[in-house]
Write a structure and sequence with these properties.
The protein is an all-alpha fold. The chain has one domain. The protein has two helices and no strands. The longest helix is centred in the N-terminal third of the chain and has 26 residues. The protein is elongated. The two termini are about 15 Å apart. About 5% of the residues are buried. Keywords: Membrane, Transmembrane, Transmembrane helix.
Length: about 60
């Protein structure tokens, strides 16, 4: 059974993994670049866009099968 066939499971996975990834990426970016500072609103905006993209891709894959 493919776990990504269920759209609710895909949404739950994306709601957990995407913010963790975005916060880690932004934090590491702020450590490496002295001119860049860590901002929470950037993490929130990026997380929203990544979650939407993740779920649109999952829907498109689901429709192809």
């Amino acid at each position: 059974m493919n776990i990504l066939k269920n759209s609710w499971v895909t949404l739950a996975i994306s709601l957990i993994l995407v913010p963790v990834y975005v916060i880690a990426f932004e934090y590491l970016r702020s450590l490496g670049d002295n001119d860049y500072s860590f901002k929470w609103y950037t993490c929130i905006i990026n997380s929203i866009f990544y979650i939407i993209a993740w779920n649109l891709i999952a829907i498109k894959i689901k429709k192809k099968k």
